Amino acid sequence: MSKVKCALLFLFSLSIVVLSAQTGTLSGRLVSKAESLPGAIVIIEGTKLGTTTAFDGSFQLFNVPIGKQIVKVTYLGYKPLQKEVVVTAATTTQLHDIELEPDAKNLKEVSVVGSYKVGSEDKAINMVKTSSHVVSVMSSEAIAKLPSKTAAEAVKRIAGTSVQNDKGEGSLVSLRGTPIDWTATLVNGDRLPTSDEENASRAFDFEVLPSDFIDYIVVARTVTPDQESDNIGGIINFLTRSNVEKKTFKVNIGGGYNTLAGKPLMNAAVTYGNVSKNKKFSYVLDGSYYGRYYGAQAYKVVYGSNFNQGIASYELKDYSGMRNTMGANAAFEYKPNDKVTIGGRFFYGRLSDDKNQYKTRFNYSDGSGSRLRLQSISGMLIRQLFGGDVHGEFKINDKITITAKVATYHNSFRYGNRPFKNKDPRNGYFFTEFMSPLLYYKDVDSVEFNGEPVGPNTVAPIVTKLLGVDNPYGTGDNYNNIQPQPINPQSTDPLQAGDFEFYRSWSELNETWERDPIVARVDLNYVINNNVKLQFGFKGRYKEGARLVSLYEWRQNVPLRPQPYLLTDFNTVQLDERGGFLRELGSPYAGSFFPFLPQDQLLNFVPNLGDTLKPYEMNPVNTEYRFWAGNRYTYTEGVYAGYGMADVKIGKVQLVAGARLEYTNLQELSDTLLDSLAFDQPSGNYYYVPEQRRTSLKYLSILPSINATWTINDKMNLRSAFSRTMHRPNFAETKPGSGAYCIDDLDLTYGNSRLKPAYSYNFDLTYEYFWGNKGMFSVGGYYKYVVNHIFAITTSYVDEIGIVAKRYDNANQSFVYGFEGAFVRKFTGLPGILSGFGLNANLTYSLSRMQAPGRSNKQAMTEQTPFLYNVALFYENKHLQARIAFNYTGAYLKDLNLATVKDLNGNLVYIHNNSDFDIFKGPMYSLDFGGSYTFKTHYTVYIELMNLLDWPDLTYRGQKERPIRTEYYRQRGQIGFKYEF
Amino acid sequence: MNFKKLLVAALSCATISAYASQPRKVLIIGIDGTRSDALQQANTPNIDGLLVNGLYTFNAWHCGVTISGPSWSDIMCGVWEDKHGVLENSYSGSNYNEYPYFTTHAKSLKPNLYMVQVAEWAPLNDDVYNDSWDKKIQVPDGGGVLTADSAVANLANPNLDAMFVYFDAVDLAGHSTGFDPNNPTYISAIEGVDGHIGTILNALYARPNYAQEDWLVLVITDHGGSGTSHGLASAQERKIWWIANGPSVEHKELVGGDPGTYTQLYQLIYQVPEVNPAVLDTVPVQTDIAVTALHHLIYDTGTNPEDVAEWDLDGKSWLKTITGLDDKSSVKSDIAMYPNPASDLVTLWFDNKQNGKVNYAVYTAEGKLVNVPALITSQNKLTLNFEGNADGIYFVKLNIAGTEYTKRLVLNQAAPKGSATPDHDHTKCTGKH
Predict the structure, then answer these.
(1) CA quadruple A331, A337, A338, A339: dihedral positive or negative?
(2) Which residues of B touch A429 (CB under 8 A)?
(3) Nearest by CB to B150, which of A305, A686, A798?
(4) Averaged pLDDT, A477-497
(5) Inter-chain contact A501–B234, Cβ cutoff 8 Å?
(6) A79/A215 same-domain check
C-alpha cells in the first residue's frame, strides 16, 4: 500500500508545472518586536488574491500580477499596514520580515514587558479566525499569566476542556467533557507515550510536564488528515519552545505556602537563548524546578453490598508529601539559507512524589469480624519523561515544501527508595498495618437483606451501618459526619494504642513504562496556486511498553516469635490534625486518632524486626499468584500512516478535505496459568504453571475528513466539519492471558485479543464572530456517533471464588451531542482605568446516551461530563496584570455497577436497573487568582492564589448523600519575581 | 520427652501387633467458611455419599471465635482457644508447644506415622509449628484443582497414614459475594469443592491396599458467615457441620444443642451463654475432630486420647467402640430435613443404598396436596422449592423403594436472599491510594 502512495507522490513531484509568465510570487513574514504573527490576513489590493500567515508568520502569494501592487495586512490588535511592492514575472519577490505595529489606540498601553505581554490573546484570536478548522490557541504569554505550574492546568481555561486532579494538581485533560482517553495529547504533533501507575489508559498524565517550556497550546476540536489519529474527543497539541528571535534571558524565582501542609512551595525557572550574528543559528535552553509540600485530608466509604447500602468500612485518610518537578528543554534552529531550516528539540521532565499517608480504617465487616486497622504508608513515586526530535524543512521551490521529522519519546513510572534505602526490587508503596482486637460497633442497625426495616416476618436480619439517606429507622449518620463507635468488649477502658497488634507489612510494586523509540514523518506541501494546496505525508511510530504490577509482603514469623508485636512496642507519633482534620466539615474527629509510626520507624520496620518477619514474594509459586498473573504484560505497537489532503478556496469558502490511512500492528504478551500440577522443590509448593499468551492485532483504519469554513465577512465565520475518527483500545483492554483481579473492586477482567478500535462519526457546526480587536465569541454544536464502543461486559464465566468475570468487548453504539460557546471581550470602551478589564468565558453542554447492559432505559455515557464552564475576569494595563478564574465541571457517571447474580435457572441476571449503585464523580468548582506588576521594563513581581474555594474532590454512589470519597486540599499561594532581558 | 511419654510409647509398641491387622488411617478434608444451611442446599453428591452411611451433623455450634486461624486450631489441636492461644489469623499468641496438633500426639506414640498436609491458605503451612507433618504442601489459594491433584498424588503413597486437605474457595466466595444459601455463586463454590472431594475420594478408593486399610474420612468447616464476613456471634457464623465416614463410626445424624461460647466478646455483646460443660459433653463440636482422628490413628496402641491427662484435650472421640456413645444423646434419623423452619428451599437426605425409586408428595396441615417442584433429586437427596406457598405447617411424604416416611415442616418465607461485596486486608490492584 505504502509503495503505491510513494509512487503517486513521486508523480506529483514530477508534474509540477512552471509558473505563468504573466505573474510572479510574493513571499514574506509578519513580525512584531521579533515575535512572529501567525494567522494574519494578507491580500493584494484590487485583486481576489489573499492568504493567511502560517505559524511562523510567513506567507506566500502566487499568481500575483506583475508590476506595482499594494499588499494589505490586517491583524487584530495591530495597525493595518499597506506596503507597495513591485512584482516581477516568473520570480519570487521576497519581502522578508514585515514589522507590524501594535494598535496603540485600542490597546491603550502597549508594551512588551517580560513574558507578560499585553494583547497576547490577540495572537490566539487571530489564529482561531484564520484556521482551516475548529481550534483554540493559547500562547506562552497566556500560559505564563496563569497561576499554574503543570501543563494540564494551563489548558484549563481553553473552551471545553476539563481537567482531572490528583492531590489538587491537574493531571489529565479531556475535551468537550468526553472520556479522558478519547482526547489525543500531542507534543510537537506526536502523541506521547503514557505510564501511569494507577490506570492503563492511553491518556497522558501532565503532572510530569512543566508548563514553563510550552510555547503554544493548540486545541483542535475537529481533525484534519495530517494529524495523528486516535482523537475522537479532539486534539491538544503542546508546542515546546523551539527558537528565539533575539538574545533572551529570563529568570523566575518564586516562593509560596500550602496552607494544609503548613509548608512552603518553591519554584525557579531560567531561559537563555541567543541568535548567531548572521541570524542563521539560534538556540534556547530552559531549566525549571518546582518543589512543593502538599497535604490532603479525606474520608472514604466502602459499601459492602450490591443489595443494600450498608457500609463495610470507613476510612480517615491523612496525606502529606512533597513533590519535585524538574524540567529541562533545549532547542536549536539552523537556517543556512531561505530554503532550508533544520531544528532540534529535546525535553526532560521528572516528577518525584514523596507520598506519606496515615489511614484509620474502621472495618464494620472485615475478613475477620469487626476491626479497626491503622495503616502507616510511605512511597516515593517517580515519573520520568524525556524525548526530542530533529526536524527539517526544505523548500524545493516556491510551490513545494518538504518537511521531515524523526523523534523519540520515553515515559516511565517506578517507585523510588521506600522502604529500603538503595535500589531494591521490594521498593514500592509501603504499608504497615496494626489491627485492633475484635470489636463491636454501636452504630449499626438490624435490617432486612435489602435494607428494609426488620419486621415480624424477618427470619435472619443482617447487622450493618446505614447512613441517613438509607437508614430505614431515621437514625443514620449525616453523610458528612460519619461517626463510627467502636467498643472494645475485652476491656472497660476505651480502645487504646496498646490494644493494636502488628498484622502485616507490604509493598505495592509497580513498574510501568512506555517508549516510542522512533517516530518519523515526512510531509510534502504542494501549492498549486493561491486557492489550491495539496499535502501528502507518511508517519510511522514504533512503541513498546510494559506494565508490571505486583506485591511483596511481610508477615510475622509465628513459629519463631509467637508473641504479638503491639503498637506500643514501637515509637509512635500522634496524627497532626493541622488546624483540624476535615475542618471544612467542622473537625468531626478532633482528638480521636490513634497513633501511627513516624516515617523513620516505618521505613526501618522490616529490617528492625529481622527474622521475626517472614517475606512473601509474589511469583508463580506464591499461593496468591493467580490474583496477580493478569496484572503483568508487555507490548509493542507499530502504527504506519499515510494521508493526502487538499486545501481549496472557492470564493469565500475554504475546504480542507482528505483521508488518512493508518495501519496498526499490535503484539502483546502476558501469561495465563495452566491448570496442571507443578512442584517447586525449594518452597515445597505446588503451583499453576504460567504460559505465555499473545495478542496479535492488525487493522487498517480509513479516516476521511472534511472541514469547511465560510468566511461570511471580515467579522464572521461559519464552520462545519465531518470526520471519521478512531479510538484505540488501551493495552489492558487487549491484554491476552489471565484476567486481572482487583479484589477490592470485586473485579476479574479479561482483556480481549480480538478487540476492535472504536470509530466515531463526527459532525461539527460552529459560528464565530469577531469584534475587531476587542474579542470574539463563538457558538457551536457537535454530534458524535460511536460504534464499537469499548466496554467491560459481564461474561458467563464465574471464577471459583465466585467473582463474575468481565471482558472488554466492542459493545453498544452510543452517541453524544453537545453545544458549546466561547466569549472573549475586552472592555476597552469603558472609561479610564476600567478599560483594562476583560472577560473570558466558555461553556460546554452535552447530552450522551448509551445502552448499558441490564438497564431498561438508555442513559448517559460513562465519563462524559454533561456540563462545564469557565469564567475569567482579567485586567491588563501597562504595569498591572490580574486574572481571577472560575471553573466548573459538572457531576458525571464514572463507573456502572454491572453486578450480576445467577437466577434459579443458572442464568446471569443484572442486579441493578438504575444508577443507585453506580459510581459518580461529584461536581468540581475552583477559583484561582493570579496577578503581576511590572516595573522598569525588565522586572515583574507576581502573586498566585490557588484553590481559593477549597472545594473537595467528590466521588459518590448513586447520590451525593452516599459519599465514596471526599478529599480536601485547602488553599495555596505563591509570590514570585521575574527578570527578563 | 518425659518418662511417662516414653512409657506410653513403649507400651504402644508392645501392643501394635495385637491390633495391626487393618492399618487405621485418617483423611481430613477442611472446607473453609461453609455455612451449614448452604451445604445442605448445594448439590454435593460426593459429600452426600459420605453422609448417607456416615456419622454427621448439620447442627453443631462453634464454641470459640469464628475466625479461620483459631477455628482450625480448635479442629486440629482438639483444644479450645484458651489453650492453643490462637485468637487471630496472624497466629500471634499461639501455644502449639504446649498444645500441638493431634498429629504430634499421634507421633509421640507412633513415630513412624507418615502424615501429609495439603493446604491452600498459607498460614496453615507457615504459621503453625510443632505439628509433626512429614510434608506440608502449599497450593494456590482457592485453587481447588491443584489441591485435589496434590492430594491425589500423595494418596498414591502406600505408606500414607494421615492427610489433611484444605479448600479455601467457599470462604473466598463468601467474602466476595456473600455467605448465604440464597447466593448462587456461594453455592456454586461449594459444589465446585464437592467435585474436588470426589476426585480425592476416588483416589482414596483406588489405593491398591484400600480393602486392607481402615480409613476414617472426616469433612468439616471452620465457621459460617454472614453478609460478606464472619468473626462475630450470629447463628449463621457459629453454626457448623461435620461428617465422619468409615467402618469405625456409626451411621447417625447427630442433632445437638448449642453448648455456648468461650469467647468473651460473644458473651458480653451478643448474649451467647458461656459454655455449659454438661451440654458440651453430649454434642458434636469442632475439637472432637482432632480427638476422633487421633483416637483412630492410635487405636492399636490401646490409648484413648481423652484419658491422656497430659494432653489435656477438650474434644471427644466419636469412634463407635467407645462405650457410652449412646449417652451422648444423639438422635438417629433415617431422613434428615433442613432447614426447618424453612424460607423457601428445603432439602431432605435419605439412605437409598439400593438406589430404589423415590417419590414424594407435599400436604398442608389440612391434608391438601400441594404442588412443590423438586430442584434437585439424586439417589439420596431431594431439594424442594416452597417459594410462593403460604406460610404454615406442611407434611412431606417420601416413598423410598417402597418404604414411606413423613416429615413435618414449618414454612416461614420472610428469609433473606442475595449476596454482597467484600472487604479485604489490602489492595490487590492499583487504585487511587
Answers:
(1) negative
(2) 433
(3) A686
(4) 89
(5) no
(6) no
Residues with Cβ within 8 Å of residue B100, at least 6 apart in sequence: B77, B130, B131, B132
Q: Within a 10 A sphere around the Cβ of A432, how many other Cβ atoms? A: 24
Percent of all residues in chain A with a pLDDT value above 90, rounded to a whole number: 49
Instruction: Tell me, yes or no, if A501 comes closer than 8 A to chain B by beta carbon.
Output: yes
Mean pLDDT lowest among A343-352, A406-415, A523-532, A877-886? A877-886
Give the burial class of B307: count Cβ atoms within 10 A of its Cβ; 0-12 exposed, 13-18 middle, 19 or more buried. exposed
Comparing CB atoms, the residue among A433, A438, A802 nearest residue B231 is A438
B343 contacts in A (CB within 8 Å)?
459
In this complex, the residue of B128, B137, B175 whose CB is nearest that of residue A686 is B137
How close, in Å, is residue A800 to chain B by CA atoms?
A: 6
Asked whether residue B139 falls in the same domain as residue B268, the answer is yes
Q: Is B142 on the interface with A (CB under 8 A)?
A: yes
Of residues A827 and A11, more confidence is placed in: A827
> How far, in Å, CA of A110 to CA of A298, rounded?
47
- Residues 281-320 in B contacting A (C-alpha not used; CB under 8 Å): none
For B348-393, what is each residue's pLDDT tens digit?
877 766 667 778 888 887 778 888 888 777 767 788 888 888 887 7
Q: Residue A109 corresponds to which cell in the numbers above? A: 498601553
Task: Tell me which of A558, A616, A617, A797 to substitute to probe the interface with B (most B C-beta atoms closer than 10 Å).
Answer: A558
Confidence at residue A440, expressed as pLDDT on a 0 to 100 scale: 83
Q: pLDDT per residue over A766-788, tens digit each?
A: 999 988 767 889 999 999 999 99
Contacts of residue A379 in chain B, CB cutoff 8 Å?
A: 433
- Tell me the C-alpha to C-alpha distance, in Å, between residue A558 and each of A869, B89, B278: 59, 11, 35
CB contact under 8 A, B425 and A555: no
By the CB < 8 Å criterion, does B273 face chain A?
A: no
User: Is B12 within 8 Å of B302 (Cβ atoms)?
Assistant: yes
CA Rg value for chain A: 31
B177 and chain A: CB distance < 8 Å anywhere? yes
- Amino acid in the structure at residue A827: F
Write down the ipTM of this complex.
Answer: 0.73
Please report which confidence band the pLDDT of residue A494 belongs to, taking 50, 70 and 90 as the band edges.
confident
Q: Do B418 and A903 touch (CB under 8 A)?
A: no
Q: Are strands A814-826 and A653-680 parallel, antiparallel or unpaired?
A: unpaired
pLDDT at position B354 is 65
Q: How many domains does chain B have?
A: 2
Q: What's the number of domains chain A is made of? A: 3
Segment 72-91 of chain B within 8 Å of chain A by CB: 85, 87-91
Select the residue of B391, B418, B428 nearest A901 (Cβ to Cβ): B418
Instruction: Give tens-digit pLDDT for B171-217.
Output: 988 887 789 887 778 888 999 999 999 999 999 999 999 999 999 99
Give domain status of residue A127, yes or no.
no
Q: Are residues A219 and A163 part of one domain?
A: yes
* A866, pLDDT greater than 60: yes
**pLDDT for A142:** 61
Residue A249 is part of a domain; what is its CATH number?
A: 2.40.170.20
The answer to whether A618 faces chain B, any CB pair under 8 Å, is no
Tell me how many helices (H) and strands (E) chain B has: 14, 16
Range of the domain at A94: 2-107
Any domain includes A573: no
One domain, residues A301 and A389: yes
Cross-chain Cβ contact B415/A460 below 8 Å = yes
B145 with B81, same domain: the answer is: yes
Do A468 and A327 fall within a single domain? no
Give all strands (DSSP E) within A79-192, no chain letters.
81-87, 92-99, 112-113, 116-117, 135-139, 161-166, 169-175, 183-187, 190-191
Question: How far, in Å, CA of A546 to CA of A551, rounded?
Answer: 16
Q: How far is A206 from chain B (nearest CA, A)?
A: 17
CATH no. for residue B373? 2.60.40.10
